[in-house]
Amino acid sequence: MIAPPEDRNSDFDIHALEGIYLLYWKIEECAETVTLDTPLAKLERHMLVCLEVPRRMGDLGREMLALPSTVTAMADALEAKGLLTRERDPSDRRAWLLSLTAEGHELRRILANKAGDVFREISGLSETDFSQFLEIALKIRSKIMESGLPKGPQE
């Protein structure tokens, strides 16, 4: 018996989501094996990637779904390694703004390139498929950013 169209769509949705989850976890697994001159914890790598431009600590924590104390600890560690600087946000002196140093930008570039290589290897997508995936993924990201990030843990 053939399932009604809405059931087939649900199965498709589940399989598509499963593919996204598996891709994410496979990339995470491969990222753990990347050797860097500066050893970084998983969340430190995530913070570097998120700091393409200077960001407020609170905004960064919400995007990473991390507790403020976790963001502070990561910022302390990355600052100690010479990868970022912390300064008061000129638009709100109560908030801290994190910025990558030149060394931090270089390490971020290396991580981004390696992540792209790993993604292409794991996904098996052709360049055309990759371009289509990128376009769709950016639409999804934009929609989520417009509607608001998920609520992460609160301290």
Short description:
The protein has helices at residues 5-31, 42-50, 57-64, 68-80, 102-123, 127-147, and strands at residues 55-56, 84-89, 92-100.
Structure characteristics:
65% helix; 155 residues; Arc Repressor Mutant, subunit A; single chain; three-stranded antiparallel beta sheet; mainly alpha
Can you tell me about this structure?
By secondary structure, this protein is mainly alpha-helical. The chain has a single domain, classed as Arc Repressor Mutant, subunit A, CATH 1.10.10.10. It is 65% helix and 11% strand. The chain is built from 6 helices and 3 strands; from the N terminus they run ααβααββαα. It has helices spanning 5-31, 42-50, 57-64, 68-80, 102-123, 127-147; strands spanning 55-56, 84-89, 92-100. A 3-stranded antiparallel β-sheet has the order 1-3-2. Helix 1 packs across helix 5 (102-123) and helix 3 (57-64) crosses helix 4. The longest helix is centred in the N-terminal third of the chain and has 27 residues, at 5-31.
Produce the secondary structure layout.
Blueprint: H1 5-31, H2 42-50, E1 55-56, H3 57-64, H4 68-80, E2 84-89, E3 92-100, H5 102-123, H6 127-147
Antiparallel strand pairs: 1-3, 2-3
Helix pairs in contact: 1-5, 3-4
- Percent strand equals 5-15%
Highest-level CATH class: Mainly Alpha
Number of strands: 3
Write down the overall geometry: globular
Number of helices: 6
**CATH fold naming:** Arc Repressor Mutant, subunit A
The helix-strand sequence is: HHEHHEEHH
Q: Average pLDDT, to the nearest integer?
A: 84
Protein structure class: mainly alpha
Distance between the termini: 51 Å
**Unreliable stretches:** none
Cα gyration radius (Å): 18 Å
| Number of spatially distinct domains | 1
